[in-house]
Structures are given as C-alpha cells and as structure tokens.
Design goal:
By secondary structure, the protein is of the alpha+beta class. It has a single domain, classed as Double Stranded RNA Binding Domain (2-Layer Sandwich). It contains two helices and six strands; from the N terminus they run βαββββαβ. Strands 2-3-4-5-1-6 form a six-stranded antiparallel beta sheet, with helices on one face. β4 and β5 form a beta hairpin. The model has no long low-confidence stretch (mean pLDDT 83).
C-alpha cells in the first residue's frame, strides 16, 4: 500500500479525475476505471475498475485545507506519482510505502 500526500487546494475529486483522465483518456470506449463517491465519507472518492472481478485501485480524500491523500496499491503507484509530480511539482508530493 502507498500513501501519496499532495499539497494542493484542489478538491480530491479534481485530483482523482486528473489521474483517471491522464491514464485512461476522457472518452475512452474501454474505460477501465471510473470515479465513484464513497458514501461513507464526505469528500472521499474511489477510483475503481469497471471489471466485476477487480478491487478498488485508489481512495482519494482531503486532510486539512491543503493536503489531499491518495491511498493505492503499490503496483499502480508509479503511474500516479509521476502524473502528480508533473502537475503539482516535486516539492508538493510526498509518498509513503508500507508492506
């Protein structure tokens, strides 16, 4: 599991949509992931595969006024971290890997 901390005032939904659109395109016929609001938490979003046998890939939520956290499997973390570094810059992205 990887936790990515992103210093931004953007809403978690905007960050999640950026990650999805950058990885899979905005109007792809073969959408492999969609954004879905988590009903249990305010301002918490889930990126989930449309395939029925797939598990949740990432959860995105805000802590504080300037920090968005993305929790995701370590097998897809490199794609997300690279995108966030390009958009927000090196000084605004930190990550933590756990086993």
């Amino acid at each position: 599991m990887v936790w990515i901390y992103c210093k931004t005032s953007d809403d978690p939904k905007i960050v999640g949509e950026y990650v999805c659109n950058s990885n899979f395109g905005q109007k792809s016929e073969n959408k492999s992931q969609v954004m879905k609001e988590n009903e249990n938490e305010d301002d918490c979003w889930i990126i989930q595969s449309e395939h029925p046998d797939s598990e949740t890939s990432a959860m995105i939520y805000r802590i504080g006024s300037e920090i968005v956290i993305i929790e995701l499997d370590d097998n897809c973390a490199a794609n997300v971290i690279e995108l966030l570094l390009k958009k927000y810059g090196f000084n605004k992205i930190k990550w933590l890997l756990t086993k």
